[in-house]
User: Fold this.
Amino acid sequence: MDSEGFHLNVSYVGSSGVVLSGEKKAALETSLVILQNQHKFSRVFFWGKILGIKDDYFIAQGVGDDEMVDKKTLYSLDCVTWGLLPEATQAMRDQCSLVKGRFTGDPSYEYEHTEIKRIGEGEEAQEEENTITIKEEDRLASAIAQIDEDVAIVPRGAYVKTPHGTVIRNRSFAGLLIQEAVKLSSYFHFREPVRLNEKSLLEKADLDKAIDFLDSIDEDIPKGSWSLHCERGSGLVILRSLLWQGLTFYHVPGTTKYGYVYVGTGEMNKDLPFML
Assistant:
């Protein structure tokens, strides 16, 4: 959710239960502008909120010239003071996946995970305990990275890929027509493509290389992991993820207004295949 016009953007996702107090809205509107100037970001987004037991984490993201690659994630407990999260490496994400349950709301909190390894064979086999420590700050960064990879989406044509490979906003994008806005195929994952690279040359023949360089969400597995409906007399299209419950995307057809916000516990709905 773009920080520019933040007060109006929040109203688009109100039907999903995303409600911020007047105090939090005012604090975010001011602090996000300061954040952009301090870090010299091209744009700043309010990513959302991860609910903790003790406190909630407010999340913001700042981007540079290449909005897909040049991105930093920050968190705050009071919407005023922001801390930079570490980059979520694959090793960090694998380690953090061992932790289950809610976030505590304390970034300095440390989880302990004990693994029991069996060494040797037969009667001489011995069991060895290995305890690893996982910081909540690392777990927070990993959860955000996973949510972005799985369900961060943009409308088709909102971004273009330059001949140099840089992903930038499409200045000629004027929004999707309502006929297109109600189709899942009109929305793309904002990440490096996976399925697109697996398609044959024949399947790629009809694609516009400048704008069709991402994976469409209509091919997501399992089928039915997205809920799409219209509000305000087709003046607002809302998509909700059932895989990461709490992720809401909005688009006002015929305009450049679109974005997403996540408000949830930071836990994936692993029961989704059995619910569909």
